[in-house]
Design goal:
By secondary structure, this protein is mainly α. It is 75% helix and 0% strand. The protein has one domain. The termini are far apart.
Length: 210
């Protein structure tokens, strides 16, 4: 009965662990694609402002500073995670775009496109900031660890005490712990050892405003 119960518990724990790792991996990949999309929109917005003319020079400078602030806050470079507050550069960018004086019909179309892109950037940035905290509830993780502890305890009830058995149990425990660690790291894509690359946002920075 002990072996039967431990088998059922091990099966449930393996299913839950597999689903959590798969979910965390999917979330990690999704946020990586969102960062790439954000970087592409930054380049597009700067191109639109460059086409607008020298009147958009201040807006391009504010765009650069708002990207710097967004990278620092998403990747927690300016300290622990804090409640979201709009950056001064981000608000200034929206004001500067609205204040652009369209001198002709072409500039009017470029201004409308720039304002729309700025709104999309702000929405994506807010979404990334909200997703940075992780999605796996702590009680679920605690229950999973309790199941795994019970499974390994049941393995040791009837196993002979020799170095081979101890080494096998230790390796199995390390493998399961590595899976839990991988799940935890993937669930926090902007901190820890496994992080979504910030290159798609940092790479466009040098050309901005030039």
């Amino acid at each position: 009965m002990v072996r039967l119960a431990s088998g059922v518990t091990a099966t449930v724990a393996a299913l839950v662990l597999g689903l959590l790792v798969s979910s965390a991996s999917g979330s990690f990949a999704t946020q990586g694609r969102e960062i790439q999309t954000l970087g592409a929109r930054i380049i597009l917005l700067d191109d639109v402002l460059a086409l607008y003319g020298p009147e958009a020079g201040r807006a391009r400078d504010l765009l650069r500073r708002s990207v710097d602030a967004a990278v620092a806050r998403i990747w927690h470079e300016d300290g622990p995670r804090q409640p979201f507050r709009a950056s001064g550069a981000g608000d200034g960018l929206l004001v500067a775009l609205q204040a652009l004086p369209p001198g002709n019909e072409a500039q009017g179309g470029l201004k409308a496109r720039a304002v729309a892109l700025a709104g999309e950037l702000a929405q994506t940035r807010l979404l990334l900031f909200e997703q940075a905290g992780g999605s796996i509830p702590a009680p679920l993780l605690a229950i999973l660890v309790a199941w795994l502890t019970a499974v390994f305890a049941s393995f040791g009830l009837f196993a002979p005490r020799n170095p081979t058995v101890i080494a096998a149990l230790l390796l199995s425990a390390l493998s399961v712990a590595a899976a839990v660690f991988l799940m935890y790291e993937l669930d926090g894509p902007f901190s820890g050892l496994l992080q979504v690359s910030s290159a798609p946002l940092r790479d466009p920075l040098p050309p901005l405003g030039q």
